[in-house]
Fold this protein.
Amino acid sequence: MIRLIMPKQEWTRRAVLRLAWVGIIASAALAIEPLAKYFTSKEDRQKFPLVVYKKPLAENSGWQNTAATRVWVKRDTLGVMAMVATCTHLGCEVNYHSDKKQWICPCHASIYDEEGRIISGPASQALHRVSVERQPDGSLIINTSKQVGMDMRV
């Protein structure tokens, strides 16, 4: 019977540190592409600043979402207003909870009241109200690039 004797390999401190550095560099290299895609993504950006809303708005019906955008519209006794549901902290899309009458950021837990004013942070500003124009046919043109005051209605 032939017996092979393998030499006992010892790990030096230098070899362990080299292996650790290779792991760190490999992890960083694998993380670069997804991070670059995330930071350059145009997924949540408004493609065009004007949004058309053609559905009828009943008075005091609550906030209604426009199709495929973060723009919400509402009609109260004073008129029609529009708001962009983007958190003023880091730009996450906030969700409206009609049962609580609050807008809540699912990422960082900022809470806004029904009108978009900040209740708790980390956000420090209210949700952005934007310009609304009523067309002769009854539809609304919402300009997301033009911010207006909280009391502005059409």
The CA atoms of residues 89 and 123 lie 4 Å apart. DSSP finds one helix and ten strands in the chain.
